């Protein structure tokens, strides 16, 4: 069985590398081509690339695992994300596409902020780049943890005595393939592979719950089994406090500040294409989220009905893939999981690379660097960030959802209010932008360090994006108005 699944995965790897080589021939001769694909993404590619790079292994590991363990109450995370993504497409996408090109043809988010607030250009570029590299190292590590869990669960012992655990072997293989096509083909390779990976992911997420229901007697039998586990398992509100509800739905706030997602808006072919991309992207996201919910819920029933043991709820997708399907189909499903993981890792590595290249190397070391030199430095930066992420991901007990939630909150609080207000509020100042950036990231880091996301004032923890986002918004508005009043 392992061999058949491995054949499917090998074919998938070859396909991703072929796309990387194609993109290398098309768009890596300039910084704009390597970092933004020449701003020529079609609506379909932009939409699925944004979706696939957004959802990551969280969609097939973290969310199903949370639903498996706690029940349907965890669906509020998905509802919050869907609402946030829709608002992001409506408010941020068209404005960011237009303003980044008009304001100096910015290739990165830090560069756009510097062009938008020239009086604080240096501070914004440097602080933004530091935050991007810091949180993306953690975020990329979350994806690599998913790759490690996949190989540890599905291919234990297949690679023999290599001196490494199956978990670390999975991390190195996942990172190696992503590095190959990202370094070779740049943004176009990442976007095209995201499109293919998004298609694979949604097919797998629709297929798996249907097969589970077919095997276990249909919806009524599965529902009855879940009621025997816990009468409130399918309740949306059982045990849900107001703080817990807020912590779940406010995941949606993070969308406005995720550089690897909103950079797709910068690369779409034209502002006129945004509406079509939004329709495609939100349709994909709705189906994918419903599938992930189905995997977690039906997976719990399947495990209980068949007397199986699952030590890690985040591996329910892998368990179902290995037990319900022919090896070749299993390989396809595991490829879907890798697609979710790799699509996000590649996007994060490229955005980190662009910040290191454009906002450090070109800014401080080689202002007159040639296009070829800049592209090559970008490739080196991709590898460096990947090595840091591998180091962070080395603990096999790491939780995908936990790592993702920390990084998601960091970006959402630091960049979310900043991007929203910079695009929509003309009275915003450079000093306000810097204060929001620093305070948003600082509050999130402090909240995590103090453990207040787990327990707060003797009660349940408060998700760090809530205080971080609120503090950043208040700082931007307050400092901007004070500055305006002082000099008016």
Question: How does this structure look, described?
Answer:
- Helix 6 crosses helix 14, helix 6 (121-154) runs parallel beside helix 16 (430-449) and helix 10 (259-267) packs across helix 13.
- The chain has helices at residues 2-27, 31-36, 43-70, 75-102, 109-116, 121-154, 166-215, 218-229, 242-249, 259-267, 274-305, 316-324, 327-365, 371-392, 400-424, 430-449, 465-487, and strands spanning 455-456, 459-460.
- The chain has 17 helices and two strands.
- With 488 residues, it is an all-alpha fold.
- A two-stranded antiparallel ribbon has the order 1-2.
- The chain starts with a helix and ends with a helix.
- It is globular.
Mean pLDDT: 82
What structural class do you assign from the helix and strand content? Answer: mainly alpha
Number of separate strands: 2
Distance between the termini: 73 Å
- Main beta-sheet strand count, sense and barrel state: 2 strands, antiparallel
Rg, nearest Å: 22 Å
Query: How do the strands line up in the largest sheet?
Result: 1-2
Strand fraction: under 5%
Tally of separate helices: 17
Order of helices and strands: HHHHHHHHHHHHHHHHEEH
Shape: globular
Helix content: over 70%
Low-confidence stretches: none
């Amino acid at each position: 069985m392992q061999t058949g699944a491995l054949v499917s995965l090998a074919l998938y790897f070859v396909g991703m590398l072929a796309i990387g080589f194609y993109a290398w021939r098309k768009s890596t001769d300039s910084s704009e081509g390597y970092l933004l694909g020449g701003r020529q993404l079609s609506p379909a590619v932009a939409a699925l690339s944004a979706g696939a790079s957004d959802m990551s292994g969280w969609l097939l590991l973290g969310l199903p695992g949370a639903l498996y363990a706690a029940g349907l109450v965890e669906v509020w995370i998905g509802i919050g994300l869907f609402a946030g993504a829709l608002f992001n497409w409506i408010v941020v996408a068209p404005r960011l596409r237009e303003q980044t090109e008009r304001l100096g043809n910015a290739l990165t988010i830090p560069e756009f902020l510097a062009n938008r607030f020239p009086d604080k250009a240096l501070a914004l570029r440097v602080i933004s780049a530091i935050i991007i590299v810091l949180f993306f190292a953690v975020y990329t590590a979350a994806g690599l943890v998913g790759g490690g869990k996949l190989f540890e669960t599905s291919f234990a012992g297949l690679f023999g005595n290599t001196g490494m655990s199956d978990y670390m072997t999975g991390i190195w293989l996942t990172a190696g393939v992503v590095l190959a096509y990202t370094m070779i083909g740049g943004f176009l390779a990442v976007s095209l592979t995201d499109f293919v990976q998004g298609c694979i992911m949604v097919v797998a997420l629709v297929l798996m719950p249907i097969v589970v229901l077919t095997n276990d007697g249909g919806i009524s039998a599965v529902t009855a089994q879940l009621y025997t586990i816990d009468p409130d398992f399918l309740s949306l509100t059982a045990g849900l406090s107001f703080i817990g509800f807020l912590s779940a739905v406010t995941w949606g706030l993070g969308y406005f500040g995720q550089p690897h997602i909103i950079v797709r808006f910068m690369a779409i072919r034209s502002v006129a294409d945004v509406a079509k991309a939004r329709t495609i992207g939100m349709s994909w996201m709705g189906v994918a989220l419903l599938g992930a919910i189905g995997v977690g819920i039906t997976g719990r029933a399947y495990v209980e009905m068949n007397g199986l043991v699952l030590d890690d709820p985040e591996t329910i997708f892998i368990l179902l893939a290995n037990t319900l399907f022919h090896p070749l189909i299993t390989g396809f499903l595991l490829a879907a999981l890798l697609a979710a993981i790799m699509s996000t890792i590649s996007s994060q590595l490229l955005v980190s690379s662009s910040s290191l290249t454009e906002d450090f190397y070109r800014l401080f070391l080689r202002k007159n660097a040639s296009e070829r030199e800049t592209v090559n430095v970008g490739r080196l930066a991709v590898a460096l960030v990947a090595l840091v992420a591998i180091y962070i991901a080395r603990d096999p007990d790491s939780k995908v959802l936990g790592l993702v939630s920390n990084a998601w909150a960091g970006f959402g609080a630091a960049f979310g209010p900043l991007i929203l207000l910079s695009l929509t509020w003309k009275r915003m100042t450079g000093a306000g932008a810097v204060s929001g950036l620093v305070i948003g990231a600082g509050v999130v880091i402090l909240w995590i360090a103090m453990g207040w996301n787990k327990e707060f004032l003797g009660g349940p923890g408060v998700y760090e994006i809530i205080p971080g986002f609120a503090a950043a918004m208040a700082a931007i508005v307050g400092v901007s108005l004070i500055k305006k009043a002082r000099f008016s």
